Amino acid sequence: MSLIVQKFGGTSVADPERIRRVADRIARTRRAGHDVIVVVSAMGKSTDELIALAGQVNPDPPGREMDMLLTSGERISMALLAMALHAEGISAMSLTGSQAGILTDQSHGEARITEIKGDRVQNSLDEGQVVIVAGFQGVSPDTKEITTLGRGGSDATAVALAAAHSADVCEIYTDVDGIYTADPRIVPTARKLDEISFKEMLELAGAGAGVLMARSVEFGRRFGIPIHVRSSFHDAEGTWVKETTMEEAIVSGVAHDTSEAKVTVMDVPDTPGVAADLFEAMSHDGVNVDMIVQNISSAGQTDISFTVSRTHSDLAMATAKRIAEHLSAGGVDIDRDIAKVSLVGAGMKTEPGIAARVFRSLANQGINIEMISTSSIRISCVVEESQAQAAVRALADEFDLHDVREEVGA
Amino acid sequence: MSLIVQKFGGTSVADPERIRRVADRIARTRRAGHDVIVVVSAMGKSTDELIALAGQVNPDPPGREMDMLLTSGERISMALLAMALHAEGISAMSLTGSQAGILTDQSHGEARITEIKGDRVQNSLDEGQVVIVAGFQGVSPDTKEITTLGRGGSDATAVALAAAHSADVCEIYTDVDGIYTADPRIVPTARKLDEISFKEMLELAGAGAGVLMARSVEFGRRFGIPIHVRSSFHDAEGTWVKETTMEEAIVSGVAHDTSEAKVTVMDVPDTPGVAADLFEAMSHDGVNVDMIVQNISSAGQTDISFTVSRTHSDLAMATAKRIAEHLSAGGVDIDRDIAKVSLVGAGMKTEPGIAARVFRSLANQGINIEMISTSSIRISCVVEESQAQAAVRALADEFDLHDVREEVGA
What does the pLDDT read at residue A246? Predict the structure, then answer.
């Protein structure tokens, strides 16, 4: 007998019919003799609808009330799912994030999980219940306020619960079949990965692969919980994200991200502390900075470029202009039409020449590289947004990321 | 400065536009220097929609999960109302029933308030916040489970909070102008009462006047909290329900109720303990019994008739048949097409002949009386459902329940 955490997203529980299908899947797991903790998101687009309602009464609603509002969404889906399980003869109980002991800090709208008090979940498991926990939400023990975890929060809830209860696996059910070597919408022959290491998945998530958020992968890695990303529409195996001991593939996949903008501060005096001034100010103003590139200086001056989320771009520009003035820099420029294309592979670090192959294959397609940033297992290039798909295809071709079976079958 | 509790029903907060209007009214009260606790129901028909959703996944959903589901409704309306107040520059905070310390017993779907722990509400009031509390919900301290209070629950929340915080008044905002001498849909010239005593209001509520439920009136009476029933659409005074010291009107109003069915157990042996057997069984099976009438016996046998809610009528029949067999009674009969018409007035007890006038005025309209039951300030008659409106009009005429101004103006 195992303890399995199963997480179902909003699409999987979008209507009563789908909720019954999810209940059926949980019931089969339970009847196979496993203990089950279920984590569920709000139904379909209901969170978006609540956000729209809020906008109609207040264009800038307070975060506390926004969290109070949004947490009603999972309350509805989890109660309905518990009812559907009862209808299948399976004993089940829904718990809010607060009831499930998911403690967070006080940051409304983007709270971090600080601790999980698992007593109530454990008692219900001991009673033979399927425990259904509201994803995306928790409670701040200091303020006794309800909080939400922000983007990807339900996955984080699932992996954190799996860690707290030493689950054997955390299954993330989604509308795709698993993790692919490239986005199948761009590279239709992309290959589904049977497994991938936490480290590689972290890089892929950070590089824009939307299936799993980095914070969930990080939880899984830290507590050694295997994550199984799989389809909610059929029973086929998906992709296992885990501490792999197998021989590592040179390249696992290519990811792209068109959600960022590039900010450049030009003609910065090349003196110590300049970068610190700039990025301390960004951090202080709440701007998340991703890639940072600084070239060698000429005539005692240099350019510093960095990427930020496009939703932060106005804020980033304001901060950059303020600091540029303070530093007597030449000026600030922004480019919102960029894409980041990244190649990830744990084997990269022992295989020379990968970077050169990346740059050559992009050049062969006439794609200009505007920024480069690398880690030991990732190479990221910023290109024009209009060339993103061509860049992904070029790298998929160069590094054999296609599904051979599909190619043969085609 | 006063402490005012204001309760708004689902119709008053049915959409963002109405929520803004309610926020405006609360803001005016607050700006006038009063402390305000607001109790709010779920938006419009949202509770009915949630019940329908539940029915689609489980025809007989467990009460615990039903409460989890339904309590999401007030969570949405109260958060939106808090946001709307912030938009008006009024500091406000929404609290769930649990956060507001509304403790109940464990009866899911029809919990009773057992205690109110007012610390958190008081702290927020002390900080100058308008406190918005979810109506209709609480928490059972024994099981730590979320409960709902059942029909009229939001009014009960409001009056109980008013009592716990020693409010000066509990204002119930509704879609009618106040309490009328008769249902204005049946008697268009019915008169709005400026005030009515708790006792009379209790009888009226028990007799089917839907504006206020008896449980709220009972709270008000017990703790001496005046209840002001008024329209959410304009500022005119409504009806004050309070401990009145004024000279009492002989008759305050007529109410009718078409939600009951009449069950008769025929030819019951007229021996001690028979009625006890019957009604203990009803109570045990969860059937709420309203009127009970037993006539004198003939030949050692009698008929016992009683009324129950129509939603309980199948259950009541099953129980009655079981007990009838046990008692060797003649049989059980049910009539679902009945109406209860009641005349209420505190002055009745000192004024002889009221009952005779009731019976005569009904007889003059050719209305047959099937059951009679009286208290010191109420006379109730069960008649055929099709004759209910005629009976209400006859009593309104007989006891001058019309608005004189309206008659003059007509």
Answer: 59
Tell me which residue in B68, B78, B83 faces A79 most closely, judged by beta carbons. B68
Mutation choice for B interface testing from A46, A65, A99, A121 by most B CBs within 10 A: A65
A126: closest CA of chain B, how far (Å): 17
Q: What is the mean pLDDT of chain B?
A: 90
Chain A residues within 8 angstroms (CB to CB) of chain B: 16, 19-20, 23, 50, 53-54, 56-59, 61-62, 64-66, 68-69, 71-73, 75-76, 78-84, 86-87, 93-94, 99, 120, 144
Q: Which residue has the tokens 């740059």?
A: A359
Blockwise average pLDDT, block size 10, chain B, 410 residues = 94 95 96 97 94 96 96 97 97 97 94 94 97 97 93 92 96 92 91 91 84 87 94 92 74 92 90 83 86 77 88 92 91 94 84 84 89 85 94 93 59
Residue ranges and CATH numbers for the domains of chain A are 3-175 (3.40.1160.10), 246-410 (3.30.2130.10)
Question: CB distance A65–B76 less than 8 Å?
Answer: no
Q: Where are the alpha helices (DSSP H) in B227-372?
A: 274-284, 313-326, 354-364
Per-residue pLDDT reduced to its tens digit, B301-342: 888 889 999 988 999 999 999 999 998 888 999 999 999 999
Cβ atoms of B259 and B310 closer than 8 Å:
yes
Phi-psi category of residue B86: left, alpha or beta, with phi > 0 → left and psi -120 to 50 → alpha: alpha
The answer to whether the complex's ipTM is over 0.85 is no
Contact present, B406 and B387 (Cβ < 8 Å): no
Tell me B395's DSSP state. Answer: H
